[in-house]
Fold this sequence. Notes:
- This protein is α+β, with helices and mostly antiparallel strands.
- The protein is 34% helix and 29% strand.
- The chain has helices at residues 2-14, 43-64, 72-79, 89-104, 114-119, 132-139, 171-185, 278-299, and strands at residues 21-29, 32-40, 85-86, 147-150, 155-158, 190-195, 199-203, 212-218, 221-231, 234-240, 245-248, 251-254, 257-258, 263-264, 268-275, 305-310, 317-319.
- Strands 1-2-6-7-10-15-16-17 form an eight-stranded antiparallel beta sheet, with helices on one face. Strands 3-5-4 form a three-stranded antiparallel beta sheet. It has a two-stranded antiparallel ribbon with strand order 8-9.
- A hairpin with a 2-residue loop joins strand 1 and strand 2 (32-40).
- Mean pLDDT is 91; it is low at 1-16.
Amino acid sequence: MKQTVIVLFLLAVLAPAQEMLRVEETADAMGSTYTVVAYGSDRARLIGAVEQSFEEVRRIDHLLSNYRPDSELSQVNRFAAQRPVEVSQETFDLLAACQEYSRLSEGAFDISVGPLMKLWGFYRGSGRLPHRAEVLGVLERVGYRKILLDPARRTVRFAREGMELDPGGIGKGYAVDRIVSVLQAAGVGAALVSAGGSSIYALGAPPGEKGWKVKIRDPRNSAKTAEEVVLSNASLSTSGNYEKFFRAEGRIFSHIMDPRTGYPAPGMLAVSVIAPRTLDSEAWTKPFFINGRQWAAQHKPAGFRVFLCEDRGEQPCAWLQ
């Protein structure tokens, strides 16, 4: 009996390990390019899991895209000022989470920022410097407290005409988390999921590594790296003034809008947040960018890591202590 056990043990040890195969695929949805790099031993199963995850992104696109007139979010934007609009539990829960981010960030995160983004020309991609009177007028149609959610009826209502929800500050993070859930359900244990390079989740680790190596770009020079991190079962999201911006009157105006003032937030170049979920890391980059280092130090959720690049000095980037 002992000899049999020893032989079986030796056969298990000496048997060649299954080769880990690598699959990389991309898909466009929600105004961004999603990339999945995944490892597994069964190529057909691995490719199937990745394709299934992209189907999930396309499903979310039909829920949250403000460019699709038939999406749930577009229906809310079109009708919620006139009547309560019933939405799916999934959309309702996400909007409720957005209101909680707004409350915790003292209004720096706000999904109702759509009218300001339009006023400043960021929907069209060109950018324009509006008059102060225009900004003040639009601010009447912005504010998370004007989004009225009814959990019992699962409806959304706007308190003002002309309000518009913009999923740009959270949609990619939510989609990345959903991709990861689909991959995990399919048995994938190692994958790197990226939405436009700015919202990333590292599932497990590649073969022979402790985690996935992810570079944070230098906000002043795209060819340089400001920091490199190793992630495993964690997310990293970055918001920077280099993503969408225009120049006017000798200044740079970025798309990262302070919904309380109606103006792009000054003083910061980029913020990266490491968190357990991509939904959280993406949402929190905006308040940290808008409210600055001191506020971030006081309000950073437990377990989060924050890398800030301020618009000052020769070495503007550092981890928040």
